[in-house]
Every structure is written in structure tokens, then in C-alpha cells.
Amino acid sequence: MYEPILTFLQEVFRLMYTILTEDIQTFAPDAYDVLTILSSSLVGVGLAISLTSFLIAETDATVTMVENKSVVGILKLLLKLGIVFYLVTHSVEGILLPAFSMVRLLIAQMFSAVGMGPDSDYLQALTGYFDASAANPFEWSLSTMFSFNIYTLIFSIAAVISGVVLLLTVIGRFLKIYVYMCYAPVALAFFSGGPNISRYGQNYLTNMLSVVAEGLTISVCIIFFQAIVRDAALMQRVEELFSFLGEMAKPGLVVLFLGSLGAMIKGADTLTHRLLGFS
Predict the structure, then answer these.
(1) Does pTM surpass 0.90?
(2) Who contacts 273 (Cβ-Cβ below 8 Å, separation ≥6)?
(3) What single string gives the DSSP state of each residue in 104-146?
(4) Do 130 and 137 meet the contact criterion of CB atoms below 8 Å apart?
């Protein structure tokens, strides 16, 4: 009787795997188009900010170098401005998206190392967790349906809510990464200024790194979740602990594990900041 719910949860985990490991051009081409359009529209603003910041910070130094005929110093300033211009104009497609592709490749390798892939049965341990001694774990009669209808309804609602929260949380975390990317042309433009101005660009890179690290933390949480539910001995001990729930012990444990995973994923930002020391 729980087969539709377990199938739903299985698809939720597969979709999360896709979001964590595939390029945005592959699984959401429309979102990629929006990203490129928004970032491209801010390139002009970024160039203006970079030039203004450069003039404010380096005008006096430039005049002094010209008066002293310091060719090397002038070339260094022009090189700095040229690098910032390159960062502004190629920040998304030339730098951030390729760098994030390497992170997604790392996540895919982490999943692969523990035997998980796009076609894996992520809930295999839980699927066989219901009436495992029966020939057909999902075989039920009309009287059984009416006898446990209220319990099935409670479990179904709790499982669906847990699955939806998991999926929306993962989507939201990765949307944050692409929202950060949209503002890259403006944020990186501040590197052309002095120390007081360039710190805005440094703050942007720090926050960007912390958001990407959250994606890695989410992946690790899912991998550990799989390791726990695959441990038959551990699951047996937990089942014995909750045996007082009777027929609802096993469905209740599924919801408990999903709720624990959801809490870890929702707290991935706090966990990542504490681990890496981000403010």
C-alpha cells in the first residue's frame, strides 16, 4: 500500500541527484538563458563601476608615475585594469560556470564512489523495509486498506511533505548559486579600486564560495543518509527501539529518517559556515 509513496520519494532523490550533478544548460536550459541574459545586462554597469573605482583609487598614483616617467608602474596599473575588465566581461560563462562545473564533477565522483548514480535505487533499503517477509511487500486486500487507512493517510501526508521539503530546499540552495552568478559582473568590478573598495569584491567571492560549499555539504548529507539506511543491523536496532508503535513503526521510521535528512539539508548553510569559518 506504500508503493506509490516510495516511488514518489525515489523520484525526488533522482531529481536531487540531477540538480546536484548536471549542468544548468542540461537540466534547465531556460534558467541558463535567464542567467546569461541577466549577467550580460550587468556587464556595462560593471565596466562603468570598475573604471570609476580605478579613477578614484589610482588617479593620484597615475599622475605621480607619469611625472616620474615610471613606465613599469603605469603598465602594472593598466594590467590591473585590464584583468578587472576581463573578469567583468567573462565572469559568468568564462570563469564561474566552468568552476562550478568542476564542483559538480566532484559531487558526481563522490556519489559514484559509494555506488550511487542517476539510475540508482536510492531507497532500495527502505523499499524492502515494508513486510519484507511477504512474497509481495505491497500486496494488500480490501480489508487491509480499510483497517489501516488512517495510518496510511498519515504516513503518506508526512512522506510527501518531507519529500517536497527536501526537493525545494535543494533547488533553493542551488538557485542561490546562480543568483550570485548574476551579480558577478558588478561585484568583481570593485577589484579595480583601492583596498577599501576592493573588499566588496572579496566579500562577494567569500559568500560565493560559502554557497558552493553548501552544495557540497548537501551532497555529503545525502551520501551519509544512504549509508545509514543501507546498514541492515543499524536499521534493525532502530526498528526494535520503535517497536512500540506497532504497524506504524516502519512507516514512522521512514518519515523520521527523511525528516532528519531534511533538517541537515536545511541547516547546511549553518553547518558549512561553522566548518569553514565563514561569517
Answers:
(1) no
(2) 210, 279
(3) HHHHHHHHHHTT--TT--TTHHHHTTSSTTSSSTT---HHHHH
(4) yes
Using one digit for the tens of pLDDT, what is the confidence trace for 86-109? 999 998 888 899 989 998 898 888
Look at 248 and 8; give whichever has higher pLDDT: 8
> Residues in the chain, how many?
279
Q: How far is CA 237 from CA 122, 127, 229, 230, 260, in A?
A: 21, 18, 12, 13, 17
Cell of 261: 535528512
Cα dihedral 33, 36, 41, 44 in deg (nearest 10): -160
Q: What does the chain look like in DSSP terms, one character per residue?
A: --HHHHHHHHHHHHHHHHHHHS-HHHH-HHHHHHHHHHHHHTHHHHHHHHHHHHHHHHHHHHHHHHHTT-HHHHHHHHHHHHHHHHHHHTIIIIIIHHHHHHHHHHHHHHHHHTT--TT--TTHHHHTTSSTTSSSTT---HHHHHHTHHHHHHHHHHHHHHHHHHHHHHHHHHHHHHHHHHTHHHHGGGGGS-HHHHHHHHHHHHHHHHHHHHHHHHHHHHHHHHHHHH-HHHHHHHHHHTGGGGGGHHHHHHHHHHHHHHHHHHTHHHHHHHHHT--
Quote the CA–CA distance of 203 and 51 in Å, as a whole number.
20
* Crossing angle of the two packed helices 195-230 and 232-241, in degrees rounded to 10: 80
pLDDT in the model for residue 252: 72
Task: Give me the amino acid identity at 195.
Answer: P
The amino acid occupying position 221 is: C
Cell of 82: 585590464
C-alpha cell at 43: 556587464
